[in-house]
Amino acid sequence: MSAPAGTTRRFRIFRFKRGDDGHRYDEFDVPVHERTTVLEALRWVQLRKDPTLALRHSCFHASCGTCGVRVNGREGLGCVTALADVSGDTVTVEPIANLPVLNDLVADMAPFVDRFPAPHPNVRESEFLPQADTPDDVEGYGRFEDCIECGLCLSACPVAATDDTYVGPAALAYAQRMLEEARGTDREAILDWADSEAGAWRCHASFECTEACPSNVRPAQRIMALRKELGSRKKVSS
Amino acid sequence: MSVRRGADPGLDEIRKGREEAGPVPRKGVGPVAWFDIRRRGLGHFAFSLNRITGLGLVFYLYLHLAVLSTLLRGEDAWDSFLGVATSKFFLLLDVLLIFGLLAHGLNGLRLALVGSGRAVDQQKALYRSIQVIGTILLLGAALRLMGSE
Amino acid sequence: MAATRAPSAAPERSRSRTWAWTAGSGVALLVLVTIHMVAHHFVVQEVGGLRSYQQVLEYIANPVIFVIEIAFLVVVTIHSMLGLRSVLFDFGLSERAKRRTDRALVALGVATVAYGFVLIGVLASRA
């Protein structure tokens, strides 16, 4: 990665290793150019300055969801967050909030995944080109769910900031998608799961999850659709 | 996490390593995250304001009941209170009360709609409308109250 | 479908009614608080629209007003308690703490309505 001479940004990066008493912030001056992304800058730090910096990434194009971080307090995927869009003299990079830190910028995603009801199919019927002819041995076209399980929505949620029992936007949005397309799941079981104080009724409609989502899942809108369905249920379980 | 020499770590050691996971980063200590609206969207602002005004109004409910108890002590006690309550400072507090009622009430109407799955895609426009309507009502009330001196 | 992982250990009753009561009481309050605020701040031609002692007694002696003010008291207390409950539950309370919170808020709500009822009743009787 080359940069015009003299163009650097100061990075302030969250550091934590297991066994440490607490976290700290390390600062680095990173050479950047007009199209440098946050992930590229972090990789530069890792390769050139501090090989102990732990970060997670994979696809470099916003489809794997592994490089989620907070940049100056705002959730985003590092691979598609351009530094040109990040204001301020110093760029502070922190792991996503509301999940335990494993190492530096790497969050433990197990508590995130554990919030989802089981099973957890990731493929759905494709809504594009419904009139398309499929080959004889193919029933229909499928696609992956929009949700890339990056955890940015949970990080942005003000309720998850104080309540670790709240299942969170991703899990609730997933539940609503199961109502849209059951894929062998039990609708009533999904509704029972969502119909709890730690489920759909804990959401306070801040819509921060939708603001943070990089993948057009619109979790807040899905939670409200879920609540509409719950509200019209005749059954009251006890 | 220790690794046995010459052997794979095993699932139990991996799980044990995971149990030693670090701190959970939050946006602030405790409920600070509810009220930190920096770099947050309109919905978060609405949520924060709703929460602040809600808690403020609960406080006001009990303050109001306590103040109204003055009435039980008779006309002199109430007149004495009115002498304070009609001062400019207290009239301004009344304007603040009306702000709280409008902010919480009008946004509550939005939440009743959106929270039951109606007009969800219009939630930002609804909030902008509430801000305009609320401002107009508040200005009218403030002019009336402060002008009554 | 395989067994779903409930977010908390114990299965819970439907919570849509709790939310419905919060929203419903809130909508009712839009009417009741408007009546209350207009009556007590914008009707009487005094500073701040505040009523004198005699004016308060005359106002509350009206049976329609009495019923409206009692209704306002009850509805605002319900909405306040449910709102406090929502805020407190956002702290991720244990099941035991939630039950205690519920009991405490019910007690506080009952005490609030009872005190307000006595207050309004005594004033109405003085008119």
Keywords:
heterotrimer; A: 238 residues; alpha+beta; Ubiquitin-like (UB roll); Fumarate Reductase Iron-sulfur Protein, Chain B, domain 2; 5-stranded mixed beta sheet; two-stranded antiparallel sheet; disordered N terminus; B: 149 residues; mainly alpha; 3 helical TM bundles of succinate and fumarate reductases; elongated
Summarize the topology.
The complex is a heterotrimer of chains A (238), B (149) and C (127).
Chain A: E1 8-15, E2 24-31, H1 38-49, E3 68-71, E4 74-77, E5 90-95, E6 101-103, E7 106-107, H2 110-114, E8 123-125, E9 142-144, H3 152-156, H4 169-180, H5 187-194, H6 208-212, H7 219-231
Parallel strand pairs in A: 1-5
Antiparallel strand pairs in A: 1-2, 3-4, 3-5, 6-7, 8-9
Chain B: H1 10-19, H2 32-35, H3 42-68, H4 75-85, H5 88-114, H6 123-146
Helix pairs in contact in B: 3-5, 5-6
Chain C: H1 16-41, H2 53-61, H3 63-89, H4 95-126
How many DSSP-defined strands of chain A?
9
| Corresponding CATH superfamily of the largest domain in chain A | Alpha-helical ferredoxin
Low-confidence stretches of chain A: 1-5
What CATH first level of the largest domain in chain A would be assigned?
Answer: Mainly Alpha
Number of domains of chain A: 2
Quaternary form: heterotrimer
- The figure for the number of domains of chain B is 1
> What percentage of amino acids of chain B are in beta strands?
under 5%
By CATH's scheme, which homologous superfamily of chain B applies?
A: Fumarate reductase/succinate dehydrogenase, transmembrane subunit
Q: Which strand order do you get reading across the main beta sheet of chain A?
A: 2-1-5-3-4
Largest sheet of chain A: 5 strands, mixed
Query: What is the radius of gyration of chain A computed over CA atoms, rounded to a whole number of angstroms?
Result: 20 Å
Mean pLDDT of chain A: 90
What is the global morphology of chain B?
A: elongated
Could you state the order of secondary-structure elements of chain A as H and E? EEHEEEEEHEEHHHHH
**Quick one: biggest sheet of chain B?**
none
The CATH class name of chain B reads: Mainly Alpha
CATH architecture of chain B: Up-down Bundle
